[in-house]
Amino acid sequence: MADPDKDLRMNDVSDDDLIRMYREGDADAFDTLFDRYYTSVYNFALTMLGNMGSSEEVLQETFLAVARTAKTYTPRGRFRAWLMRIVRNRCLNRIESERVRRAVLVQSGLADIRPVANEPLPSENLEADEQAAIVHAAIAALSDRQREAMTLYAFERMSYGEIADVLETPINTVKTLIHRARASIARALESQESER
Amino acid sequence: MNCNMTYEELAAFASGDLDAGREAEIRNHLEQCDTCRKRLEALNEADAALRALRPVRPPASAILATRRALGEAADGAGGAEIMTLDEVGEYLRVTPKQLGEVVGELPAFELAGRIRVRRTKLIEWIEQRERSYTRRAAASWAARAVRGEFGKGVA
Predict the structure, then answer these.
(1) Which domains does chain B have, with CATH numbers?
(2) Which of A49, A108, B2, B18 is most buried when burial is the number of CB atoms within 10 A of its CB?
(3) In chain B, residues 20-59 whose CB comes closer than 8 Å to chain A
(4) How buried is A45 (Cβ within 10 angstroms: 0-12 exposed, 13-18 middle, 19+ buried)?
(5) In angstroms, how far is CA A182 from the centroid of its own chain?
(6) B97 to chain A nearest CA, in Å?
(7) pLDDT tens digits, residue range B94-123?
């Protein structure tokens, strides 16, 4: 982008306005959305899939889908939830494909590859800090649903309502998922304390 | 002391998600229960640790690759939105005969006796097929596996 002032101005523009501008042909508006959310998209995919390569593919697929379907987005101040729902659906498709593929391979005696999901996060993501490492490990050990909800809660600082929107689940279910996940993480920290 | 309080309820208490009555009961309980006080401490510690977490950034190569793909998609939109059947065949990389086998399923419309397809509809159609592919392929592979076709050069 040739105009640095425009970059700065774009930082204050709301997601919905950026989408409107993009629809009207402003490619820079899309760049701003991309810069704003590529880490969120990748991080969410990584927590769901536990695999860097697949998460990079989901990153790319997601933004291509956003570019293609921007016209269908209804601007109601919920762009981030809409975006994360796309990420989630892409990840769920991959998890399902992998599950079916593995079932077939196991049945045919060709199983040799570890599942995409449930691999531990790569070690370079673990903070040196021991407590953060425990928290990361505890998040990785949560059920899939709890981990999804916790990722949106902890990394994205989403409200219960927004999380419910992404997971297409009632708010009370989201609260239960988050409370259980926080309890599991606290238990992990507590048992670490008692081992000292 | 004998305590029936669940960790989950304490978590709800710690984040202020309980009604005032239950919250007051738990406050009273905490004054008497060491176990729950320790748990609440662990929960506060967990919440602080969660607030300190930073998301993992994608590698620079992945950011670049995505930018490039977005650029190509924008240019490639260069292909017109309305496609002829020849263009659809070329896009899908199938021969006209192969395209003929699925032409009835395409999201097409007729205009002055010609069949035309909207590029965006075509992409949605491909995505639908991608979703149903897994199940159909799995069923067919499973059938072949049962027949022992794998490992005999048939697969």
Answers:
(1) 7-52 (no CATH), 80-155 (1.10.10)
(2) A49
(3) 38-39, 42-43, 45-47, 49-59
(4) buried
(5) 18
(6) 29
(7) 888 899 888 889 999 988 888 899 988 898
Higher confidence at residue A195 or residue A115?
A195
Whether B5 has its CB under 8 Å from any CB of chain A: the answer is no
Q: Does B131 touch chain A (CB under 8 A)?
A: yes
Three-class secondary structure of residue A97 per DSSP: helix
**Taking CA atoms, what residue in A is nearest to B47?**
A182
Tracing tokens 């005999």 back to the chain, one arrives at: B152
- Model ipTM? 0.79
CA distance A155 to chain B (A): 6
The reply to whether residue B66 touches residue A34, judged by beta carbons under 8 angstroms, is yes
Q: Domain segments of chain A: what residues?
A: 7-117, 120-196
Residue A150 neighbours by CB under 8 Å, 6+ apart: A139, A142, A177, A178, A181, A182, B50
CATH class of A120-196: mainly alpha
Contact between A50 and A118 under an 8 Å Cβ cutoff? The reply is yes
CATH code of the domain occupying A7-117: 1.10.1740.10
Phi/psi at B79 (nearest 5 deg)? -60, 140
Q: What is the pLDDT of residues A164-180, one digit of tens each?
A: 999 999 999 999 999 99
Chain A nearest-CA residue for B57: A39
Quick check: A43 contacting B, CB < 8 Å?
A: yes
Q: How many CB pairs under 8 A join A and B?
A: 141
pLDDT of residue A117: 44
Place of tokens 């002032």: A5
Q: How far apart are CA B67 and CA B57, in angstroms?
A: 15
Q: What are phi and psi of B82, to 5 degrees?
A: -95, 125
- Whether A104 sits inside 8 A of B145 (CB atoms) is yes
- Sequence-distant (6+) residues with CB within 8 A of B118 are B81, B82, B83, B107, B109
User: What per-residue confidence (pLDDT) applies to B123?
Assistant: 86
Q: Which token pair is A34? A: 């991309």
Contact A27 B74 (CB under 8 A): yes
